[in-house]
Amino acid sequence: RATTLTRAIRYNKHFGRSLHTRNDVKNALEEFFSQTADQSADDEKPVEKNYKIRSERRKGRGGLRNRVIIEMRRQIKVLSAWFKDNKRFAFYSSSLLFVYEGDENAEATRDNAKLRMIDFAHVLRSDGATRDTSYLDGLYGLLRIIDEILSEQEASGKLRED
């Protein structure tokens, strides 16, 4: 069986800044977790994405990478548990980096999916009495969006246990 190699797609900081509504974030996540590639594997340079999300891509031949979404959800929950107990540090202007790779046609039970916190220039020691509720609220909001995506996948019959 032949496999198709796809290139990395880069989104610059302006893309993230262009996401103003909850629906913008949801569409961006669906785009990110989409299996449908819009570039040729023969191209050598990474693609610099436009800022508009094209919803028709998600309706294409590949659908969403449900295994990746489920694994990212698990990792966000682990991070949320840490932040729930954290009273030592306050995180300002920190970011989450989502990375995954793997063959969507493979029989593997898990794609290589990683969630990492990055951008620690503005981490401050806290007073030890309060937790960083802003970061925690952001993680919970992200979990709600991911749960909504998974619920829609399940309702459409596209979510199955692998």
TrEMBL record:
Catalysed reactions, as listed in the record: 1D-myo-inositol 1,4,5-trisphosphate + 2 ATP = 1D-myo-inositol 1,3,4,5,6-pentakisphosphate + 2 ADP + 2 H(+); 1D-myo-inositol 1,3,4,6-tetrakisphosphate + ATP = 1D-myo-inositol 1,3,4,5,6-pentakisphosphate + ADP + H(+)
Protein name (database record): Kinase
Family: Belongs to the inositol phosphokinase (IPK) family.
Keyword vocabulary terms for this entry: ATP-binding, Kinase, Nucleotide-binding, Transferase
Matches recorded under Pfam families: IPK
Lineage of the organism: Eukaryota, Sar, Stramenopiles, Ochrophyta, Bolidophyceae
Enzyme class: transferase
Superkingdom, natural source: Eukaryota
InterPro entries listed in its UniProt record: IPK, IPK_sf
Source organism: Tetraparma gracilis
EC number(s) reported in the record: 2.7.-.-
